[in-house]
TrEMBL record:
Gene3D superfamilies attached to this UniProt entry: 3.30.530.20
Organism, as annotated: Nocardia alba
Name by which UniProt lists this protein: Polyketide cyclase/dehydrase/lipid transport protein
Region (Disordered), start-end ranges: 148-181
Length: 181
């Protein structure tokens, strides 16, 4: 099996980042080419949960049944296709700081068979690398947007005075800026 690997650093805590990715029905918002990711059986999350992924790349549209095969809270999510050629999607999570989380995205796919498949795969590899980089960027941006809305009762806050001298308590964002409140 060959792999594409991409790392992104999300500007949110480990718990928020993991919860965002673990809500797999959100995948179409940040994974290029995925038009739907719907529950198809088993538990709603974790090992044994089953999903139907719809992929659309130009004129090619496919449904890929997936099953979660590994799930460790705040550490790892692994999904594998259950029919057709094997596809593996893995998300590994590491806290960088209290407000930054590294996510390693790994897409495993079968080695091309035959000369024709190898020739096509060689041409598509650079496109797939670019696409996975865009997926990582979109994940980072979506998590940042989610983080800006998440309540942080135990997180940093500040008292900001408006022009009339009124004190307003506000939450600070991941880099110390005021959230849009």
């Amino acid at each position: 099996m060959d792999e594409f690997v991409q790392r992104c650093v999300c500007p949110a805590s480990l718990a928020i980042t993991f919860a965002f990715v673990d809500d797999v029905e959100r995948l179409p918002a940040w994974v290029i080419g995925v038009s739907a990711f719907t529950h198809a059986g088993g538990p709603n999350q974790g090992v044994g949960s089953q999903w139907q992924m719809r992929i659309a790349f130009g004129p090619v549209k496919r449904r890929v049944p997936m099953r979660c095969t590994e799930w460790i809270d705040n550490e790892l999510i692994v999904m594998r296709s259950t029919s057709g050629r094997e596809l593996r999607i893995e998300f590994g999570f590491t806290a960088v700081t209290a407000t930054e989380t590294a996510v390693d995205i790994v897409v495993g796919y079968p080695r091309p068979e035959g000369a024709a498949e190898r020739a096509v795969a060689a041409k598509l590899e650079s496109l797939a690398t670019i696409a996975l980089g865009r997926v990582a960027t979109r994940l980072r941006d979506c998590v940042a947007q989610e983080y800006s809305r998440a309540p942080r009762a135990d997180g940093p806050s500040a008292t900001v005075f408006d022009g009339a001298g009124q004190a307003n308590r506000t939450e600070l964002g991941p880099t110390g800026e005021r959230d849009g409140q």
